[in-house]
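Revision sheet: structure tokens.
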Amino acid sequence: MKRVRLTVAYDGTNYHGWQLQPREITVEEVLNNALSELTGEDIQVIGASRTDAGVHALGNVAVFDTESRIPGEKFSYALNQRLPEDVIIQKSEEVEDDFHPRYCDCRKTYEYTILNRDFPLPEYRNTAHFCYGNLDIDAMNEACKAFIGEHDFAAFCSAGAQVKTTVRTIYSLTVTEEKLRSGRLVRIIVQGNGFLYNMVRIIAGTLIEVGRGMKKADDISDIISSADRSNAGPTAPAKGLKLVEIRYEE
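Predicted:
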């Protein structure tokens, strides 16, 4: 028996999130089916991040155990012949038997993309949140400073999350812009040791309010200290969110 780690990229548009759901197609289900067909075993992957419906990934991580004689690094090639075109394995490798993608120390990087212009563009309809008006990037970056470090982020967690603690550490948070022929793409990039339910999307929604002048950069510290979800901004739509990378402290 060996344990194999997969680095998985996917377009989450057509999936009801990562985790198995009754009567709904999910990324986890697609992987389980492809692996079971390939190995002849009943394979159930363990994912690092249970992304929501519509959320995308460049580098989510999953592991599975198998008695297959296929070398760990070859699973990516074999699986990509069986997976749909919106789910692609970027890397496969054998890892230690006790490696667990959710319990090993890691740094996760997420990116939230905003299409900031007068009208939407069809090519970004599934991968960016459309926001009209002129977002104040400088104000958004000023607001980012208050998030850095270890804090209780209860104000940035949706109701219903089952966690032992709402304390998390954010290592970096920046807002960048890329000019388009008309308008721009604004990207919120955040790295932390873990994130609460909808935390990145709530951070994005709050920073958008700062960019629109509805909140001030100086408000963020008070919002965090309040531990009150109603004080933060709205939960930004899922389609703008992308899990970029999970880097393990190995």
